[in-house]
Structures are given as structure tokens and as C-alpha cells.
Amino acid sequence: MHPAFLYEPLGNHTVQCHLCRRRCKIAIGKSGYCRTRKNLDGKLFSLIYGRVSSMRISPIEIKPLFHFYPGSQWLSVGSLGCNFLCPGCQNWEIAHANVEKELPSLRSVTPEESVQLAHDGHCKGISWTYNEPTLWFEYTLDSARMAQEAGLLTNYVTNANITVEALDLIGPHLNAFRADLKGFSDETYKRIANIDGFDGILKILERAKHFWGMHVEIITNLIPGMNDQKLELKEMARWVCGSLGSETPWHVTRFVPHFRLAHLIPTPVAKLEQAREIGLEAGLKYVYLGNVPGHHAENTYCPACGKLLIERVNYQILQYRLDGTHCGYCDHPIAGYF
Predict the structure, then answer these.
(1) Which has the closest alpha carbon to 209: 79, 68, 74?
(2) How far apart are alpha carbons 6 and 165 in whole angstroms?
(3) Of 14, 31, 46, which residue constitutes the final position of a domain?
(4) 287 falls within a domain
(5) For residue 168, what is the enclosing H or E element?
(6) In sequence order, what are the residues at sequence separation of 6 or more whose Cβ sits closer than 8 angstroms to the Cβ of residue 245?
(7) How far is the C-alpha of 74 from the C-alpha of 152, rounded, in Å?
(8) Between the chain's N and C termini, which has fewer beta carbons within 10 Å?
(9) Which domain holds residue 335?
């Protein structure tokens, strides 16, 4: 176990965690909602520091991040636990895991070892993904600092339910923030993510981009009957365009039935295409569809001349027609890092 950051004693050996926006009050001997942080004798500890459930080298497109060094390879690392516990989670085996029960089966990887593995694998950087990286905070902060010193880039694949205090600690050491926006109403967030209110998530997204200068891309997994209402999608697209900028990539992905939502159907492609049109009509320049290999909306097009710049099929790049950070046809600047 590793001493936790960002908590305060409340008396009677109870502590309050200030890592995520739940701000759990944790009695002695108990764990928080995420099951990864435990109160021992009035002090909070992380149970998962350096404990790896999943690790592999994978392309940046699988995050998905389409405007952050396309085609680059990343050491992708995950642990256990989540602060949402969504009913349709595709990684439910690790996100919903009984953390203390599963810990003995996990591999231990130090921050130094992760940096070395990224170097040995010729990776552009390290991505903390698979489960919610906020819960791995002490470990990801140590790793991000070391990665930065070693010339590697860093990325969180996150639900953005982190506190401002935590974001501001790791902000100087994170380059990219691929964040979920699961809906655009309190009701939707309660239904999908088991939280009350989502305004704080919007503030975190704005702060990551505008205060810390991270590259931000947004993903919405469109679940039939849960977050696919036109009005809500219009409000979401307008907010992304107005608050994060028209050049912010928005990935609308097809829900594949999992876990407690296994009874639902996969998202109809027509629904995804409708959402994409909503995003484009709101002024967004880069709206992508995910989990539909071969669809033309996997590709990047120049917002000025409309020419195909990056052709993709299921995370693979087939054609690449950028000249540095500009369109190879009309020289229009393309947002992102290439």
C-alpha cells in the first residue's frame, strides 16, 4: 500500500478523500466508492499503486485520439477500479472488480520500469487507460514526472470526474486528455455514471484545455435509449464547440452490449450518423464515428477543401496526406499535433 494524496482527517479516525468529485467520507477500516483507497488507522492509502491489470503497446488511435501524433505507438497501462461503475462498461472485469480480492493476481510495475518499457517499445509516450486513471493518481503522477524527464509524452483516458486539486497537481505533467462526455443532463449522468450532477466535469474539461494547455478529445458512447436523444446531443455539441473550441475532435462511438446492458442492441449506424450531423451543424470541424470499421467518418477530412487527409480502418492508417500540420492540398492548418 502507498500513502494517498489529497485527503483530510475529519475526526473519529474518519477521512475525506479529495481525489475525485465524489469526495468520499471513509470510516476506519473502510474503502471509498472506487474500492481502491482504504482508511487504515485514520490515514488513507492507495491499494493499487503500481499494480497492473492490463498492459500492452497500442496505437494512439485506439484511445481514440486522432489529432495527437497519428500512427504513434503508446505503452497503455491500467489497474483496477472505477469511480463511476457504469452498467454497460466494456472493461467491467477490472473496473467493477473486488480490488482487495484481485490484488494478489496483479503484476507490480514501478514508474521507472514503465518508462523503460515505453522506451524499449519505441513508444511516443505512456497512456493510463482501461480503468479510470484518476484512481491511480499517486502512481500516474510519479510515472508522468519520470516520463516527462525521459522525453516521453503522457495521456489520461478518463471520465474527467477528477477534482480541481488533483488535476492541478498532475496538470503540468499531462499532455493529452481523452475524456468521456457520457451525456448532457443530470438525469443521464445519474443513470449511466451513478453521480449527481455533471457541471464539475465540464469545468474540468475546460481547465484541462484552457488552463493546462492539454490536447483534449471528447468521446460519447451512444447507448440506445439512454443518451441518444437529439436535444441532449445538440446541447452537448454546442457546448463542446463553444467551450472547448470548434476544432475539438468529438468521437461518437457505437455501443456494443456489455455487462448489465447486454440485453440492449448495438447502436444503429443511422443514430451515429445523425449524431455526427448534429455535431457538424453545431460548428464542430472534426466529428468521428467509432466502432464502425470502414465507415467514412473514421477518416480525417480538411475542413476547408474537404479532401481526405487521413484514411483509417479499425485503428489502422491507410493513407496520410498532411504536410506537417497543414492540409496537403490547400495548406489549411489542421488542429492537433502531427
Answers:
(1) 68
(2) 8
(3) 46
(4) yes
(5) helix 164-170
(6) 209
(7) 10
(8) N
(9) 299-338
How many contiguous H segments (helices) and E segments (strands) does the chain have? 9, 21
What are the pLDDT digits (tens) for 227-266? Answer: 999 999 999 999 999 999 999 999 999 999 999 999 999 9
Q: Are residues 252 and 214 in the same domain?
A: yes
pLDDT per position as a tens digit, 26-72: 999 999 999 999 999 999 999 999 999 999 999 999 999 999 999 99
C-alpha cell of residue 287: 466529428
Cell of 100: 482487495
**Which residues lie below 8 Å from residue 272, measured CB to CB, with a gap of 6+?**
222, 252, 253, 254, 289, 292, 297
> Residue 150: helix, strand or coil by DSSP?
coil
CA distance 81 to 243: 30
pTM of the model: 0.97
Q: How far apart are CA 23 and CA 26, in angstroms?
A: 9
Phi-psi region of 28 (alpha: psi -120 to 50; beta: other; left: phi over 0): beta
> Which grid coordinates belong to 40?
487504515
List the grid coordinates of 244: 472547448
